[in-house]
Design goal:
This protein is α+β, with helices and mostly antiparallel strands. The chain contains three helices and eight strands; from the N terminus they run βαβββαβαβββ.
Length: about 160
């Protein structure tokens, strides 16, 4: 395990907060029905991410500010990362995602601290964000996603 204490996430430049908690699910529609019908969360986004081979749904509390979300993630392929997770562990908590202002800068800081990222370069994430992951073996057991939100197009407002 890397010395994460020496360069912990709280020391990262541009760390903005928790973006979402990712939950791997075997049946996405059933999970959405539970989280909306039973828990009262509201769906704010749904998309297929072919790069990650997942379908994902973002939910928020009805009266929350939406800054922290729950992400339900269903595998589109058994050999995808989420598909392998579901086969090994079954449905459940998959990852914790931190929102960052500059993924490239955070990646360089982590690399200099000896914390490798799963991908050599950022990948496409939800709603056009840029993402990368820190492997659980380097974080004490939790898969950490780093999310740089997409810059909003001012013309789309």
């Amino acid at each position: 395990m890397s010395d994460f204490g020496a360069a912990g996430l709280s020391d990262l430049p541009g760390l903005l907060g928790i973006d979402h908690v990712g939950i791997a699910v075997a049946d996405l529609d059933a999970a959405v029905a539970f989280h909306t019908g039973t828990l009262g969360l509201v769906v704010v986004h749904r998309e297929v991410n072919p790069d990650q081979a997942v379908e994902e749904v973002m939910l928020v509390p009805p009266d929350g500010d939406g800054s922290t979300q729950v992400q339900l993630v269903g595998a589109l392929a058994a050999d995808s990362a989420v598909g392998r997770f579901l086969k090994r562990r079954g449905p459940g908590l998959h990852h914790l995602a931190y929102r960052v202002s500059d993924l490239s800068l955070v990646s360089r800081v982590l690399h200099k601290s000896g914390v490798p990222l799963i991908y050599d370069s950022p990948r496409a994430g939800t709603r056009g964000s840029r993402i990368n992951f820190v492997h659980p073996k380097d974080t004490g057991g939790t898969l950490i996603e780093l999310v740089e939100p997409a810059v909003e197009d001012p013309e789309s407002r």
